[in-house]
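Fold Annotation — chain and its backbone

Fields — amino acid sequence, structure tokens

___
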Amino acid sequence: MIPDMLLRLAINRLTIRPAEKQSLEEVIDSEAFFRALTPVLLSQILGRTIARMEVGPDELLRRAERDLRFLRARGCHALCMYDRRYPAALQEIYDPPYLLYVRGEIPAADLPMVAIVGTRDPGAPAAVAARDLGRQFAHAGVTVVSGLARGIDVEAHRGAVDHGITGAVLASGVDLITPSAHRGIAARILDRGGFILSEYAPGVAPMKYHFPARNRIISGLSRSVIVVQAPAKSGALITADYALDQGRDLFVHRAGIEGGRGAGAAGLAADGAPVIDCAGDVFREWGIEMPPGGDPTAGAGETPVAPPSVDEAVRRRIESVRRSMLPEVSR
């Protein structure tokens, strides 16, 4: 059965795997059924032992009602995989989110996205490289995706936000911007037509185990993943692993492969990840020329302008490359 949105919101608050939430959706046909859920019944439905429910079904429904009020008050969306706005690229990964909570609008899938990730403590050259890449891709009409964390993530968003579309994927609810110092850039992302999304319900705080799960979404949304700088145990390497598992292109930036801060990125390069200097290198790997507005030297120190439209022929060529790697999912 396909439940209404209130039931989907309640199901998503259960601490079970996304695929299990999808399975549960196929069974639950009413609010009364949901209220009857017990660990024993959940175990029978999911085919594995559920020792306890951290929150009972009545409370989950109350929280879902609050979530629904939040979404309506803030003009946000909760997208299930049946929704045409749910990103097709994300549907194709091994464990797609059951629901996506979205502030703003995810761009239509007529152009690829690029993820720019890395350490929270970059060196100055790597920070500049992340800003430059963000600006270059945004100028070219390619959406820049990252995690709004300190360091490389936020520098990529800052580079892109005044020149095109950028999107942030959170490890918390979409109403909780952390660190608080990034609330300003988050507001600019939305004001400039970008998006903030999460698979976690409003009010859910970022937990340590949320970040690897968040990283699979960042790579899943993207045509290519660029690790600008990462030490040996950086979370960005988790994103790199997901990129390879998901069949995404993986690149590292030359500015971030030296010294201890770049040991992880250097390891990726040693394993065969191409080393790039600018967005143009990525476009050449895709088999296309740098799209109009994507000159790697453009934009530095200039007054921000609205992103130029991408030439339709170039747009078609980018889409052709995208389709060759990410076959369109029937909806």
